[in-house]
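Recall from the previous lesson that a structure prediction takes nothing but the amino acid sequence as input. Here we apply that procedure to Response regulatory domain-containing protein from Anaerosporomusa subterranea. The sequence below is the only information supplied.
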Amino acid sequence: MREPSEKIRVLIVDDSPFSRQLLADSLDSHWFEIVGFADGFRSALEGYRTHMPDVITMDIAMPEMDGLEVTRRLIKQEPDAKVVIVSSMKDDDLEKLAKCKGAAKFLQKPFEPEVLMSVLRSVCDADVVDHDFKSCYPAEFIASFSNFMKRFITDVTAQSTVDDTRLYSSGISILVGITGQYSGRMVLDLSVETAKCIATRLLKQEPKDSDQINDVIAELANIVAGNASSKLNREFRGAFLRVSPPAIFTGEKFSIASPNLEIHAWQVDTPFGKARLSVGFKKEIV
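The prediction returns the following tokens.
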């Protein structure tokens, strides 16, 4: 079995040189290795037995035999083969047929490279890695926040709180979306006064107005989420975590609900007041 830290070995089955190159160029060579190309059943079977790839990308429209039938025959002879259909056509019936033939996933062209890599990685080694990811990500996010804050404020402590799927704002809430193999979000919440004091410390001068306070806290949240995500990407090859631009919410008469996320939350005590950090990813990581 391939170790999570090893490159994912890919066999590309497609009769079009252009499509082959497009797929190959979409795969980051740090995480993926192209072990061969094929253009039909015989060359696919030979390529699989020769190189034993972790995953196969399979086009549908090929001259001698369509990719769905190639998939069926290949898996019949090599039950451990993992096939991802990559086609310009996709509908519910076609996707169901592909699954019946044995395909693990179905991806429609065109696609972003991150999407292709995420799908291939999810097919290869999801179960153990997902369990490890769910165990590790809370510690990485609170460590990222604490380490950043301690560069400017020495007296910072964090305590885990009840994992509530609804967060009630104290005045300013910064939400950072996270995409990739695992999708979720991080929220930093604090009072206006606490935000102003922290912004003053970071800027080393009084903020000009509330907009500048919000911008400073939003950038703080962006750095925290980005650093944690980068660390997780190094630990879990193929996670491809990316952070979205921070969304700023102000006021005390709203809450942020995350019913489909597994939430971890902390109360952070600083000399300037309390802050709350919460992070969550989908309960069923697939």
